[in-house]
Amino acid sequence: MNILRKIRQGLRDAAQVIIMAPIKLPSKVLAVARYVALAIGILEALDPEKEERDSRNNDGRPQSEGSNREEVLDETQ
Q1: HSE-CB of 20 using CA atoms within 13 angstroms
Q2: 27-45 and 3-19 are packed helices; what angle lies between their axes, rounded to 10 degrees?
Q3: How do the pLDDT tens digits run along the chain, 77 residues long?
């Protein structure tokens, strides 16, 4: 895990803790936490490495097209 990913993870966790805190915090603190969470979400959505990681299995091989599909059988017939 590279340093940028660790920083993003830490900022995301801190923003979630602040937003979900059961105590009343100043509105400016909550606004900053929401903007940080939004910015982190946008950065993760645009991360090209994440798409590459998601397209691979745990053993590093690309997933086959039908490997994650589940067949659902209709038992009412």
Answers
A1: 7
A2: 140
A3: 588 889 889 999 999 999 998 999 899 999 999 999 999 999 888 887 765 666 665 555 555 555 444 445 545 54
Q: In this structure, are residues 18 and 33 in contact, taking their beta carbons and an 8 Å threshold?
A: yes
End-to-end CA distance of the chain: 50
Q: Tell me how far apart the alpha carbons of residues 39 and 8 are, in angstroms, rounded to a whole number.
A: 10
CA-CA distance, 47 to 56, in Å (whole number)? 15
Q: How far apart are the C-alpha atoms of 37 and 18, rounded to whole Å?
A: 10
Q: Which two tokens stand for residue 19?
A: 């937003």
pTM attached to this predicted model: 0.58
Residue 13, token pair as written in the block:
């966790």
